[in-house]
Design goal:
mainly alpha; 434 Repressor (Amino-terminal Domain); about 0% strand; elongated
Length: about 180
């Protein structure tokens, strides 16, 4: 895992610990460090580290972030390719990669809070892989996704039906096929 991914992950955990239900932003991190540790780090510096534009941190920045997040400074470096902190199976490695991927996706979809929140929830699941496999089974079972949506979130089911024609897959979507077969 790259150091930028680790910092994004730590921001997500910190937001959760602070009861925000989301990652703390880079700007919120800068402000919290200033208020709680009476030290400074710039948002642009954090952005460069997280994006990979700056591949290494200074020792003082690493120590400051480690102190804030309460992790060992040695954690805030890129892991060597294939490195694992514990004896794990390939499946557990996959689990961690899925979690990071979902958390990164949640950041990309911050403009759609419902999608972002669902991606975070999936990443927090103890068995993320199983969660995604379950989603696959639901989607492979004709009509099940629509029936579950209708039962659990009827307001979304009705909105989907109203906007189905605007869906990128149009009338070729599984929803349109299922709706058509249900009407017959």
């Amino acid at each position: 895992m790259k150091v930028g991914e680790k910092i994004r992950y730590l921001r997500e955990v910190e937001g959760s610990l602070r009861g925000l239900g989301r990652s703390i932003t880079q700007q919120e991190l800068v402000k919290a460090i200033r208020q709680e540790l009476r030290q400074t780090i710039s948002q642009s510096y954090l952005s460069q580290i997280e994006s990979g534009a700056r591949p290494h941190m200074t020792q003082s920045s690493r120590a400051l972030l480690a102190k804030f997040f309460k992790v060992h400074p040695g954690f805030l470096v890129d892991d060597p390719e294939g490195y694992h902190t514990e004896l794990t199976s390939d499946l557990r490695t996959t689990e961690g990669q899925l979690d990071v991927w979902l958390l990164q996706g949640s950041e990309r979809f911050v403009g759609d809070p419902e999608v972002s929140e669902v991606l975070i929830k999936a990443a927090r699941e103890k068995d993320t892989r199983r969660c995604l496999l379950l989603l696959g089974v639901i989607l492979d079972t004709p009509g099940l996704a629509e029936r579950l949506l209708e039962a659990l979130r009827p307001e979304l089911a009705h909105a989907t039906k109203r906007h189905g024609e605007n869906h990128p897959r149009g009338n070729n979507s599984r929803i349109a096929k299922t709706e058509g077969s249900r009407l017959r």
